[in-house]
Design a protein that fits this description.
The protein is of the alpha/beta class. It contains twelve helices and twelve strands. 46% of the residues are buried.
Amino acid sequence: MFVTAVSRETQPWNPSSVLRLFEQPFLDLLSQAQQVHRAHHPANEVQLSTLLSIKTGACSEDCAYCPQSRHHDTGLEESRLAPLETVLAAARAAREQGAQRFCMGAAWRSPTERQLDDVIDMVAAVKALGMETCVTLGMLKAGQAERLRNAGLDYYNHNLDTSPEFYGSIITTRTYQDRLDTLEAVRDAGIKVCCGGIVGMGESRRERAGLIAQLANLDPYPESVPINNLVRVAGTPLADAPPVDEFEFVRTIAAARIAMPRAVLRLSAGRTEMSDTMQALCFMAGAGSIFYGDELLTTANPQQEKDKALMARLGLKVMGGDTEAAAEREAALVSV
């Protein structure tokens, strides 16, 4: 028997109510999640997004999962902010491969105004290609979100990573409230929110439920919710973390789908360790987007041809890829 899915507008979620979703029989949970997904999203369609690291390494934060932290010896080579021409070439290539959204990530605790000037130029240039734009730059200072909005930014990514209770085990250089404050500034500026978390960092099921409850009770909840499967990188404190059970990861996707019916759930980092069958179950559970390309910031991502083959085997279509409107947009962009 299904656990009744209460709408956020009538009753807030809490860790216990989300936990009850997790505890359903697996097939019941998947069936319910798929019904919710089809009620709010096109069936058998997946949005493609591409993520580019525009500034890599030497981050002052101590996130236990991150190879870009200067606190960890991972052998990652630091790079300065990429030139605009390099970013634009990558965006054009992503568009040609079918990506609708182009995301740019910089390993900063918080950008300076000068750094933001350069990112704003990138946002405006990518937006001119007709793509959705997203950036992740760390915490934002007063007025910076408004500057990004004025440049045409569609989404700002700033993940909560995990539940409030488990957060201190993963990060000590930034508080949970710091993250919530940045999300509030982004929302107040009129930019859409991309916010999710990471599964497999040693958290309990209840702590995974706590993350989903926290996300679902943001007002409003994020339009975009990336769910990452921890990539265990040598040299980070979580290098030897045990992998999360495959069915547990799928349950997390399904619970997030039910708790945030209209959000686009993004199957993000860690797909190299997922079998085709596991990814198919994630789509069944309500994942409606993947990051597409050979690299996700600094870690590997399934190659494009492999993704295309999997989507073909599953009968999945690229969102907007077969519509007349998409063809018209593409024709209009030829001269860009």
